Amino acid sequence: MNAIKRFLILEWEAIAGILAAVAAIVMHFLHLVESDVLLTISVVLIAVLFIRDLRREGLRERLDSSLQRTEAGIKELQLTIGLVIEHTKLLDDILERLQAPGVDTYPSREALYSVVPEIIASVSTGPNEEKQLLLAALHGHSGRRILIPAAPIPVLEAFDTALLNCIMSSGLGMWAVREIYNITAEDRLNLILERLEQTKDADGYQVRTFSFPDAVAPLSPLVIGSEHVFLALDDPRYYRVSKAFHVKNREVANLVKEYFDSLWNDSRAVTLRSAVGIETDGVHALREILRGSQPAHETAGNI
Fold it and tell me: Less Cβ around it within 10 Å: N or C end of the chain?
């Protein structure tokens, strides 16, 4: 097979020309052909070789052009493959973040309020967990709600019990609880004051409030411990939240804590309960705001 390949790649045109030239010379020396015939044969051989070179030159040009196109295509393919790999890595990263186990969504009130007590319990039993609960219950911005459900709702009662246990905790492992409200109705204020009276002996419990009935709808944050964060939407029926997403991430928790502290330290916030106890001046000022005797922005900053 190799011998056949070597036979096929021989320069047969050159070999034929050489043989013809040798034959013409031999016949000339034998006086079989005249010199004019020898010259003619030489010219024909030269023309044949020249034509062969011209044909090869065209073939070489076509090969060069084909190689250039191939190189350009390979470079373009390399760039395309690079972009595909880069985009694939980006999509993988996005998918990984979207599927991260630290992010959960709770599309219903029941699902949301049932999981919070579980997280509070897990943080309570964690030896190195920060016992801190920050709740911004910023309800009431779009009108009144039902103050107390006509029939008990178990998940809400379980949440209230878990929160109360945190508020009333003491000693080693005590919880520090801070709450921010947006109280826009006096009956809601009275209900909150009832709980403040019930928890008057709590050690690490503080409460402040705003009173803005026409505020833009906010997300209500809840921070539990050092890495659990809930951001929730207002419930249109009760003074609760209806749905939320939960992020378990220390950096996100620190960021939301900064947001909570900015609300806490806002000059328009009224203090209802300090670290010492119930602030009667703040309660009186808030009643005046709710009864319309004094605008909130004129009173709150002085309490």
Answer: N
Rg (CA), the chain: 45
Q: Is residue 287 within 8 Å of 189, Cβ to Cβ?
A: yes
Whether residue 271 is predicted with pLDDT greater than 80 in this model: the reply is: yes
Which segments within the chain are labelled E, that is strand?
103-106, 132-137, 176-182, 205-210, 220-224, 228-234, 241-248, 270-273
Q: DSSP 3-state assignment of 196? A: helix
First and final CA of the chain: distance in angstroms?
104
CATH number belonging to domain 103-302: 3.30.870.10
Q: What is the identity of the amino acid at 194?
A: E
> Tokens representing 193?
């004051």
- 109 CB-contact burial (10 Å; exposed 0-12 / middle 13-18 / buried 19+): buried
Look up the pTM and report it: 0.64
Chain segment 155-179, per-residue pLDDT in tens: 999 999 999 999 999 988 899 999 9
- Read off the DSSP letter of residue 220: E
Q: How many residues in the chain?
A: 303
**Is the pLDDT assigned to residue 118 strictly greater than 80?**
yes
Label residue 236 left, alpha or beta by phi (over 0 means left) and psi (-120 to 50 means alpha). alpha
Which residues have CB under 8 Å from 171's CB, separation 6+? none
Closest by CA to 256, choosing from 223, 233, 208, is: 223
The domain ranges of the chain are 2-85+88-94, 103-302
Mean pLDDT for 270-278 is: 94
In the sheet that holds 132-137, the strands lie side by side as 103-106, 241-248, 228-234, 220-224, 132-137, 176-182, 205-210, 270-273
HSE of 179 in the Cβ direction (CA atoms, 13 Å)? 19
